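Ticket #4471: structure output looks truncated?

Reporter: J.K.
Steps to reproduce: submitted the chain below (461 residues) through the standard prediction queue, then opened the result file.
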Amino acid sequence: MAINVEELTSTIIEKIGGIENVTLAEMCVTRLRFKLKDKNKADTEGLKKVNGVLSVVYGAGLYQVVLGANVFPVFEKIKRDYNIETSEVVEDSELLAQPEKKNFNYYLQAVIQFLSASVTPFVTVLYGAGMLKVVLSLASYFWPEVAQNSTYTLFNYLATTPFYFMPILIAYGTAKTLKSNPVFAIAMAAALLYPDFVGLVGGDTTVTMLGIPVILVKYANTFLPALLSTILLAYLERFFYKVVPAVLRTVFAPLCILAFAYPIVVLIVAPLGTIIGGYIVNMFVGLYKVTGGISVGLLAAVWPFIVMGGFNMLFVAPMLELLSNLKYDNFFRPTWVLHNIAEGGACIGVAIRAKDKQLKSDAISAAIGAIVSGVSEPAIYGINLRLRKPLLAVVIGGFVGGCTAGLLGAKAYSLGYSSILAIPIFLDTMLAITIAIGVTLVVSIAATLIMGFDEDAIAEK
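Returned output as attached by the reporter:
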């Protein structure tokens, strides 16, 4: 049955307390995310019963309405017809104004929301560039002579550019999140990638800034240096635009921002970012070594609940650190892929066992979305969570498949969508991830068929 987008949109706005209760509206692949002035004004149970709404969750400080394929037209309707801010994140002062107790959980939620909002704007570009790299790698593997073609070379430049200049993309996303001028952040990130600066790295010349030795590091492909630098710039921007007299502000505020920020960035903030990034990578590498790859299975087993909590984008940061430092990710990307396969496998099990034709059709559709497109929310909220036992099958399938991937040494060498189509990004470990995908699919289907489910539960909304 077709969804009336106008009716669905107006109902959602009404159920979350009206436009006056909303300070921010964002969109990810399958859900709308609202920052509400008072989340208690939202009619969550009523919203869950609305046709077209798969689920409602609250996580990372955001009220999240899962819509699946309907998210794009609804979000466009909100942007066009409602006086609600979109695509931006509320300022720190607005976050702190919320009537929430400032305990550890409050600050943890604030950090999660900040990181998620900062990386969301550019992740899609990295996915696309990563998959383009894979296509080029496969082409050169099967037809080695193609690598000598200028067309191949130019496409390779394009595929490499978003990763090399990732600090600039991060600077933009972080600045937009902090509501600071992204041009300052971009300029500072670009300064770290300036060809002559990069040329100093590894040389014999001692470089100093204000008499202090500069730690020369290649910042291409890095995550944290640009993130931390942008935070510093945001505070300096607010300070200087406040203290510099209005008659001098146009010229001297930007001068002061850049002049004060650059020494701090070059001497402290940017090197500190690489050090912290190194520790993050070493932590996951050490965990992987201790567990022998079982950690991948454990993470895959809890991934459905991470997605339901809206925390999955938080893991993009350490994923990027792994790819930057090790040139591969043997932890997060395998987990993400195998979780989606497990969700799809459980849905296939439901489709096989279900008697109701509509349930069979919905389960097959959700399975295809999870396995082929890497979109798991329709499978989670539309099928597996509502039937309960299939969700346990997802956990079992994810654990067994994740352990298989970890023990076989599956490694993703680039970003890519978390579906079966991501197999090529594993390059020389494609066989390992293929076996893990097969194991995950078989186990999740079998677990669903063995445990069964209460088909009547799907009627509950």
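Triage note (M.O.): checked the attachment and the full token line is present. Residues 113-288 form one domain.
Status: closed, working as intended.
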